[in-house]
């Protein structure tokens, strides 16, 4: 194992880029969006994530509420869970993530995202940068993109 | 002291995130905005920073001028000064900061920020990325957010 | 040679910032835009890059097509080529670049940029973050800004 | 066969109009959009055209690129192919088309359309008028409408 | 009678152009809008067309409905009726019209126009192109412009 | 000479299309814009047309006036003059043009264009369609596009 090894195939990228790269003791991840790369399907609401995740996020079962909160909550969960999977594929774990840069389509979504993030970081929180941008790939349905960095020292 | 230690309490964050984190020889900071966390007060002009800072920045005492330039100059000073305090709390100093990512609400503010930044980096300047974004937290009064990274090798 | 040495003069920055900085085994670059710093001239189309680059990018010779595609293709080429020059000036090479953050004025330009990027990274691709922002420096003619990081271990 | 005969049923129009009409030695076609009249389905991307056409147009298999370029490329192909079918139903062939009026939703799409058009007119190109309009029928998903005229002299 | 003769005075144009021109077996008409050239008056509703036409178009006598539907229905009727008069002045009849290019201010008006058009073309319908444009002459009250072509072979 | 012959090279097109095509006794022209194809230069004002044309159009020599009226007057003259050249290259003359379709960026320009058009059609005027569109190729500097058709019977 070299300090600069190849990305795993855990998260198939949308374009030609690596899902993660090791550089020294660091694992750098690409910005993650809520697109299921196998199905080329965008996560648009509770119905696109596992039922137990939807329950954890507070799905009410009331249409008017779920249709409003579902998209950002489901995308937040999906993105952070995929970051977790990617870091694990790279030999680390979620608590090794020490930095997040978070891009929103609309910062009114921040409180929803913030609540979801706490489930993924019960211990020491990462450093964080948050801005609102005009758009992300691939379409306007994308509400959030998160870029994570982890510290996973080689033995 | 470990290579990956706990954030200090110097800058109490608005949400649940760390003000800084050490990873190896690096200190990573969260994006900093001009909000006084103790008072939960946004820096809106010269009156929200120390008088000697306002003088340094060129406060004219003429209302029409100060009301235009004051907000971006005061926020620029506040943000960079808080970065300085945070790096020092992490065991380094401002000259250890080698990278800045700067988000603006309006790039017409850049020349003002640029002048302030020179006061904080009289020596070798950091690498720099500058973009204009739609919005930042917590409100539209925020004109700038700066994310800094420092190199502070452990003995 | 120290682990934290001075930026070369290869790419003369527009404001007071470094084109690159070494920190440990890493080379951090400033965000790069398509401005020729010597001539203070913005790259606006095929005519502002070498003819062989224009040919490589697919210049058709038809005015209506070239005037539409030329700006983003030429800026993409110029930015990535300047990143290559800067990394080489820092003692590395393009294949050492393992991370890119890419800011676009309009994400419809992404497919064009993506094709150009493949020419510069024929081997292992870097991790990648892509967002659309409102504006970049110095003017609205700038369609893309790319921030690169490379891993170039010291002997 | 009269100089002014009835439209065939090849392309079932959306409203009450003819797909084509002969007048003397000329065949006039209605403006064609990318709607499959049998299925009343709008062509939205590569998945709505035959796989070999998608390959010809340069489908990359990368989601972010294909989702951006697919709609205009697939609509361009569909519209021109349906013009070909209609002219053939009227007793002519694509090379008899000597005039095109092309309406775009966004002229940034022109280079993509232009490349597709070359596949359909390998020989002498038609005269051409190109403008950008506010909208076309039936919905905002329609990116292009093309009106063709052919010269097919009666024996 | 020559193959290329002079326009009649049936429809006095607003600027210096011909209402119609013969070229070979074809009669080409200028784009027609709903302006009464004698009175230099724009058709704005049912009150500007003959009562029996208003009845045919479905005038309800209810203000809220007629004020909404009246403008487009009355303009559609007026424009198509003037095309009929012009073609007759040129020696043909409405059924000789084989091609229409139709420009709308707002395509939501299309269903209304489409219903009116059926009254004028009970037999074989013409080929048709429909687009929405930003504006037409002389003012923003103009909702539709129709350009017709007829085939009226000389003996 | 056949009824359907090849376009001359008089007006080098911007993309791959013909400047004109004969079909039977008709000459069909592509939409013409004010771009000098040899120099790939857009006509932006009086300085881009011959001085005697500028004088004819009413150049005042007063900057404020000429900078407002110059662009549309110069483009109108250039476009109609190029139509004249193209028709002559096809074996006809300006008086053979019997139909014009005119696309404007802004219909406030119409009176200026209309005055210029009278110089080119001192005799029988052509039929005419006028609409305002969102944009034309190649850039937003283009204020007008004119599509002409001529009747030039073969011996």
From TrEMBL, chains A, B, C, D, E, F:
<dbReference type="Pfam" id="PF01042">
    <property type="entry name" value="Ribonuc_L-PSP"/>
</dbReference>
<dbReference type="InterPro" id="IPR006175">
    <property type="entry name" value="YjgF/YER057c/UK114"/>
</dbReference>
<dbReference type="GO" id="GO:0016787">
    <property type="term" value="F:hydrolase activity"/>
</dbReference>
<protein>
    <submittedName>
        <fullName>RidA family protein</fullName>
        <ecNumber>3.5.-.-</ecNumber>
    </submittedName>
</protein>
<comment type="similarity">
    <text>Belongs to the RutC family.</text>
</comment>
<dbReference type="InterPro" id="IPR035959">
    <property type="entry name" value="RutC-like_sf"/>
</dbReference>
<keyword id="KW-0378">Hydrolase</keyword>
């Amino acid at each position: 194992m070299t300090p600069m090894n190849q990305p795993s195939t855990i998260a198939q990228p949308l374009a030609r880029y690596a899902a993660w790269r090791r550089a020294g003791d660091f694992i750098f991840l690409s910005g993650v969006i809520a697109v299921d790369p196998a199905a080329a399907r965008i996560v648009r609401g509770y119905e696109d994530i596992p039922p137990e995740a939807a329950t954890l996020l507070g799905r009410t079962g009331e249409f008017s509420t779920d249709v409003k909160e579902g998209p950002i909550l489901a995308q937040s969960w999906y993105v952070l869970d995929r970051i977790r999977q990617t870091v694990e594929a790279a030999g680390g774990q979620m608590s090794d993530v020490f930095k997040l840069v978070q891009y929103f389509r609309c910062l009114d979504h921040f409180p929803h995202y913030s609540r979801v993030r706490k489930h993924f970081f019960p211990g020491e929180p990462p450093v964080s940068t948050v801005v609102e941008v005009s758009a992300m790939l691939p379409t306007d349905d994308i509400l959030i993109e998160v870029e994570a960095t982890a510290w996973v020292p080689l033995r």
